[in-house]
Amino acid sequence: MIRKFSLEHDRQSLFIRFAGRRYRIERSTGIVNWLNEALQTEEKADYNEVMTIYDVLCYSKENCRLANEWVNVASLFAVQGGSLEKGSSFFQEAGKYFDGNTKELAHACAALRGRKLDKGDAAYELDLFPFLPLILRFWESDEDFPASLQILTDKNVLDYMHYETLMFAITHIFERLKGNMR
C-alpha cells in the first residue's frame, strides 16, 4: 500500500489525503482519524470515509492506472440498477440543494482544493485521492430545465474501488460540499 500509493508513513501510522483532508491510519488498531487543520485536532473518521479509504487501500487492483478518459458515473459498465437507476433521485436531490447557490458551491469546491473548469455554472475537478480525481459539473435550473448535476470519473475508477464504495465517496463529497456551503 505504501509503495503502490506513495503513502507518507511512520512506524505507527499511514497517512493519506481523501477529499481534501489528511487522514491518519493507526497501524496497530486500524483506527482512522482526520486532521482538523482549523482546530489542530484529530477527529474520528465517519463510516463513509473509513470504508472508502479501506476499500481503495485493500481492494484496488495491483496495477491500477487511470485511463485518462472521463465517463459519467451513471454510465459505468458495471452499473446495473442500484442507486443510479433511471429515475433515481441520488443526483437530483443534490442538484436541488445546490440550485440557487452556485457561488456557495463554487466556494465549497475551492475549499476542497478543487480546480475550476469551464463547462457548467459550477464545474470543478476534485481529488478523491491525490491519485484519483473526479469532476463535478452543475447547471442551475431555468424556466425550461431543472438543476442538473453530473459526476464524471476516470473510466478505470472501478479498478480502485467497488461501485458501492464509489457511492460512499460521492456521498462524502456532497456532505463536505454542503458543510462548506453553510
How would you explain this protein's 3D organization?
The chain is of the alpha+beta class. The protein has two domains: 2-59, no CATH class; 70-181, 2-Layer Sandwich (TATA-Binding Protein), CATH 3.30.310. The chain contains five helices and ten strands. A five-stranded antiparallel β-sheet has the order 1-2-3-4-5, with helices on one face. A five-stranded antiparallel β-sheet has the order 6-10-9-8-7. It is globular. The protein starts with a helix and ends with a helix. The model has no long low-confidence stretch (mean pLDDT 89). Residues 5-173 form the DUF3786 domain. InterPro entries: DUF3786. It holds the Pfam family DUF3786. This is DUF3786 domain-containing protein.
Short description:
By secondary structure, the chain is α+β, with helices and mostly antiparallel strands. It is built from five helices and ten strands, in the order αβββββαβααββββα. A five-stranded antiparallel sheet has the order 1-2-3-4-5, with helices on one face. The chain has a five-stranded antiparallel sheet with strand order 6-10-9-8-7.
Fold-level CATH name of the largest domain: TATA-Binding Protein
The fraction of residues in strands falls at: 25-35%
Cα radius of gyration in angstroms: 17 Å
C-alpha end-to-end distance: 36 Å
List unreliable stretches of 5+ residues: none
* Helix-strand topology string: HEEEEEHEHHEEEEH
Shape: globular
Quick tags:
182 residues; alpha+beta; TATA-Binding Protein; 28% strand; DUF3786 domain-containing protein; DUF3786
List the helices and strands and how they pair.
Elements: H1 2-5, E1 8-9, E2 13-18, E3 21-26, E4 32-36, E5 41-44, H2 47-59, E6 70-72, H3 90-98, H4 102-111, E7 115-116, E8 122-129, E9 132-139, E10 148-154, H5 163-181
Antiparallel strand pairs: 1-2, 2-3, 3-4, 4-5, 6-10, 7-8, 8-9, 9-10
Helix pairs in contact: 2-5, 4-5
